[in-house]
Amino acid sequence: MIVVSSCLAGLKVRYNGTHSLNHKIHKLIEEKKAVTVCPELLGGFSTPREPAEIIGGNGEDVLDGKAKVIEQSGRDVTELYIKGAFATLKKVQELNATIIVLKEYSPSCGSTMIYNGQFENEKIVGNGVTTALLKRNGLQVISEEQFSEVKVEV
């Protein structure tokens, strides 16, 4: 089974109420070859919500208690991101996912790049909180850009 970020399937669950539709992923959902997950919603957020970034490190640092996820207004939402990461891990394990495709740059889902924590639209190398947890549990996570290169029958 393939697990994908809900926003990549066209669901309007991003912080600003939009989606990041990827047509290849949407087709997999329609054909019931993939299921969606949104770590932020599983963590207790609603849509729309305030933008958040990891401050002081990356997803691994958040899991280790060395960094935080902070909304633009300054509210600490670290625990909600961690809760969503663990809920996503449980779902992925229950589905025996073979491919996990998560939205790049997200503080939850980024798998190679995340925003730098300054709310300046600048990116740094790093994983989001959910991706870090999934990787710690031996799971492979790729971005939508990497997925475009994967051969999957659609």
Structure report:
It is a single chain. By secondary structure, the chain is an alpha/beta fold. It has one domain. It is 31% helix and 19% strand. The strands form three sheets. Strands 2-1-5-8 form a four-stranded parallel β-sheet, sandwiched between helices. Strands 3-4 form a two-stranded antiparallel sheet. A hairpin with a 7-residue loop joins β6 and β7. α4 crosses α5. It is globular, with a radius of gyration of 14 Å. The model has no long low-confidence stretch (mean pLDDT 96).
Structure at a glance:
This protein is of the alpha/beta class and 154 residues long. Helices cover 31% and strands 19% of the residues. InterPro entries: 2-thiour_desulf (IPR007553).
- Main beta-sheet strand count, sense and barrel state: 4 strands, parallel
Oligomer: single chain
From the spread of the alpha carbons, the general shape counts as globular
Radius of gyration computed on alpha carbons: 14 Å
Bin the helical content. 25-40%
- Report how far the terminal alpha carbons are from each other: 13 Å
Neighbour order of strands in the largest sheet: 2-1-5-8
Proportion of residues in β-strands: 15-25%
Structural class: alpha/beta
Number-wise, the strands total 8
